[in-house]
Amino acid sequence: MEAGVSHRVLPKRIKAFYGAGAIANGAYGTLGGLAMFFYNQVVGVPAATVAAAISIVVLADAFWDVMIGHTSDQVRSKLGRRHPFILAALLVLPVAIYLRWHPPVGWAPEQMFYYIVGTGLLLNLIWSFYEIPASALAAELAPDYDDRTVLLSWRWVLSAVGTATANTLIYGVYLRSTAEHPVGQLNADGYGPLSLAVTGVVVTAGLVMALGTWRRIATLYQPEARTAFDLGSQFRNFTGVLKNRNFLVAMASGIVSGLSSGIAGGFDLYFKTFLWELKPQDLLFLGLLGLPFQFFGAAVAPFLAKRWTKRRAMMTLFFVSIVFAQGPILLKLLGILDLNGSPMLLWVLGSTMLVSGVASIGGYVIMSSMVIDIVEDVQVKTGHRSEALIATADTFPQKLVASASALIPGLILTYVAFPKQAKPGPEAMALITQAGWIYLPIVTLFSAGSVAILALYRLEKSDHERNLAAIGR
Prior knowledge:
single chain, mainly alpha, Growth Hormone, Chain: A, 76% helix
């Protein structure tokens, strides 16, 4: 039975508590983004080996995400459907992060492959038990069409706080430039203490969200009690989600987007280190830019979504983001933007990152809101609320293709014979330029294609209001 909610618009303090949980996402994701670079350039494992290991981890992640999401949707407890998973994950997450960033010394590449896979599987599994239920809370907390976009803006803004905090710890504290390590991101001794500091941020933020939303548990949806497990009902619930037109559009877009993000994520620190030849203090500056552009992006998203439509605003923002994200790389490869070593480089990169970041975050805020609008659309047709299932079924194909695309950076780096434990300089510049000419058209094509698919999405505010009326919210 679903309890009524006294106010359709969620109080700001609850939005702030819920959004605080995304500080954990920002910090965790920023640390995780160093994995390819760390194991290849710092530990010394061949790029193709690291890429293959990461690909396997992402592939497994896609399968258990759906099972965790579906289980979370069906749980009945005094603590609600989501909070038991969140608290359990936060309890054991520190152990998994420690193992991931404290690899053994002296192991052969073949042995390190299994270590990277094993610790990656453990860490991603535990993280899924936190992130999937946490994400699913958004649709339950904010049923209103426009208010949930505002709620997700809080989540994206505070995710930026987590990202900025992690970047400060990475490039301002543990991997900063020193006389012994002028390129701080190559300092092997900094990664272990860094992981412990980030763990503290992640666990603290997760607990703030769980405890801050605790009193809302009584107002959240509880599935009907069942005397026995009904496989037929579970299957109909799952297929009901998969038959929804708008869900299929979002899923198709996610598949193409997953290819782009997997490749871009693998190359990010390589480009910053070897193409732009940035120092840790430069990376810290650019990383901290994420804080203001998240605020601006989160502010512009609800405004544009309400003034236009969610779909039009999202597509416009994403296309702007693509141009400004890939433009500097193209100009560098053409030899036009040749500012390495000049103070102007940071101004140029910072300016384009600001525009791209604002547009990208605004687009993702609206896109997240569009996906959870599907929850009520599915509920009207199936009689079941499946917030976590919808979120994970949407990301399932994305992670499948992200698993394949995680291989691509390693394959490209191997193809151009980019060395492990390289040093910035003319040789590394020539090789990373070759890799860039392969990278750029692939990522640009997939990024634009994923946005174009979303033109087929058909769920507007009037449709959502009818769905809410139909389910009595």
